[in-house]
Amino acid sequence: MAIPAISPYSMPTRDELPDARVEWDLDASRSVLLIHDMQKYFIDAYQSDVEPLSVVVPNIVRIREACKAAGVPVVYTMQPGDQHPSRRGILADFWGTGLTTGRDTEVIDELTPDLSDIQVTKWRYSAFQRTDFRQLLAHYGRDQLIVTGVYAHMGCMLSAADAFMSDVAPFMVVDGTADFSRDEHVMALDYVAKRVGRVETTGAVIEALEATAHRNVPHNEQLAVTR
């Protein structure tokens, strides 16, 4: 029950999605970047040289660089390999035993975490379930979440919904997320836009980060944390 091969599809565009329901402005001093499940086990399902991945990976790289320049904490979710059945639980009924220890668990080379990045061990679709992610946001005094990664209609969308339910404003990146199919991708973005947050393009996110970076206090003492 490994991840099936994902057929190429053209990236959704912002003008296909509903107008924003909320007037939130992304602020570097209030935000955290979530890079969700960009591990080789999940990314191997895509063809790397065509859309969506050929667009999504460079865009996440650009957003990560902008966040680092603006002093925005960067958080990776990473599922562990060789999960014990008691940890895997009913997730195994849908996806089997999951990742094995080793290459499966590594983040793709373009986005390898560095010593200033935070790694959160993830057990379910949402980054907030069975983790201390909410506490990390509180520790850094952050109440906005930039959501990137895979898969849009599962972990990305549900992390955005959990953020909303924790009074953290999610900003899901249209062209910084990828999915099993274009229809599922559009569905996830549509849901976030209508119910729990905002959807923004990579360009709009970077522009907002650069415009508000002067308000931010650099986290020079931020250390790598593995949870």
UniProtKB/TrEMBL annotation:
On whether Hydrolase is a keyword of this UniProt record, the answer is yes
Entry keyword set: Hydrolase
Q: Which residues form the Isochorismatase-like domain?
A: 31-202
- The identity of this protein, by name, is Isochorismatase family protein
Native source species: Rhodococcus artemisiae
Instruction: Recite the lineage of the species.
Output: Bacteria, Bacillati, Actinomycetota, Actinomycetes, Mycobacteriales
